[in-house]
Amino acid sequence: MKIMIVDDSTIVRTVIKRYLAITKDEIVAYAANGVEAIERFKEHLPDLVTLDITMPEMNGLEALERMLEIKPDASILMISALSSKDTVVKAINMGAAGYLVKPVEAHQLIDKIKAIKEAANEGSGFKRIFRWRRQLL
Amino acid sequence: MKEADLSVYSGGVDNYFKQFPDSKVVMKDHYPMEDKFVFLDYSAIIGISGSRKGGLYVTVPTAMIDDLITAMGVGPADDALRKDMIGEVANNIAGNAGEVFGGDFKISVPIVVTGEKHNIELPVAIPAMTIPVEWKGHTSFLVVGTE
Lengths: 137, 147
Prior knowledge:
The structure holds 2 protein chains of 2 kinds. Chain A has helices spanning 10-20, 34-44, 60-70, 85-94, 106-136; strands at 2-6, 26-31, 48-51, 75-80, 98-101. By secondary structure, chain A is of the alpha/beta class. In chain A, strands 2-1-3-4-5 form a 5-stranded parallel beta sheet, sandwiched between helices. The longest helix of chain A has 31 residues, at 106-136. The N and C termini of chain A lie far apart (30 Å). Chain B has helices at 3-17, 62-71, 79-96, 98-101, and strands spanning 25-27, 31-32, 42-50, 54-60, 105-107, 111-114, 129-135, 138-146. In chain B, strands 1, 2, 3, 4, 5, 6, 7 and 8 form an 8-stranded antiparallel beta sheet that branches. Chain A binds chain B through residues 8-12, 14-15, 18, 54-56, 80-87, 90, 101-103, 105, and chain B through 15-16, 18-19, 69, 72-74, 80-81, 84-85, 87-88, 91-92, 94-99, 101-103, 105, 107, 109.
């Protein structure tokens, strides 16, 4: 699976990269804000993106929307310190595949990615239909 | 600012430092911030909007931020990493408060400053509370002022 890591913190990007070494997925790109993330996303078309929300230039929710317009079947995992239910629900309704609240431990990230992979494999057809429908609304 | 609100932010500090189980964080009794803002070597300021307007900042000595960077397994520490680290600490504390305060609680990206002299103006009209935070023998401060 091709993964992109988006966070304005170098430290967080490094820690997520270290956690993901366990999954042996390929990290194809990094970005430090939403604008950069969209550019890298277009170049690499990753299968999964870990995406922060509070970032300069363009926040993660805007980036989420743009990424799913570009590749509707991409899995976007939000990883943010923002923990209000409203924000979590908004991200999921926008099409995020999951949401983790910072600080995130390795096992939480690994478990979530495993669940996202399983969901993607089992329900890819349904997921595509759901996202196409969402885009039409 | 209500006492209960302050405990939400101190809960955010606790939650952040839980990822380092070998070294416990201790928060001392809070007190009202007096005339002068305390700024140590590295500080990250976050603006808060919505129903609780105001802001918070975290200020730490270099030795503590270096220990935090080491604890994260990243390094060696330099000025850029220190700024990155303190910004992330403040972002976590402020962001986690949204779980209690709800969707109307909006935070800015952190502004990081170094040393005591800078041009950042804080809303002195809003009473602020200071919470001393001790970790690994270092003392830092969380200052919160919201309506």
